[in-house]
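Sample entry (221 residues):
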Amino acid sequence: MGRRQCATADGPCYRCLYPEPPPPGMVQNYAEGGVFGVLPGLVGTIQAIETLKLILGRGESLAGRLLMIDALSMQFRSVIVERDPKCPACGVRTITQLIDYDEFCGTPALGAVMESVRQITPQELALRRARGDDVDLIDVREPHETETGIVPGATAIPLGDFASAIATLDTSRVFVLMCRSGKRSADAARQLQAAGFKNVTSLAGGMIRWSEESREIAKSP
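Predicted structure, serialized as tokens:
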């Protein structure tokens, strides 16, 4: 009990581990990097268990330890983290108010990412393809995603390789970027815009919406 109470009362905080926020542009936001959707639920369950242990005074708390989860191999391990007496949050307490870290770190919110590029709906894209419009389709999903299917005529360039591939693209062409849900394609479109490309759009809703609306279009008389 003594060890647990000591760890709970005097354990480190997040700022003990990372005393300074990352510099602008260093960290991707969730729209760019993506989120493995089930992991927040797993971590939330662990947090709930820790809360119950503290309330009941049972078991050994995670306070003072950093729990790391490798979901691919399903392995859990923890390391001891010491409290930093010079920590700006729980040590010297120089942090007295919250700030907008999205703005501070230069990570725009999802809405700003989506609004900064033009969107094209699946119906509009299908109509342009039916008319025979000369459009270059680029799928920025990862290889394991495109293995399950890709829009005929599209070129697969994973988002992680996209920046280095921009130099091989013709600025005079018309591009439509696509991904699973429209988040990564919006980021890729922003990269093309920054490189001077003028005719760039992102597929609204990504392949999820494309698949759904393609079925509806096929059912139409």
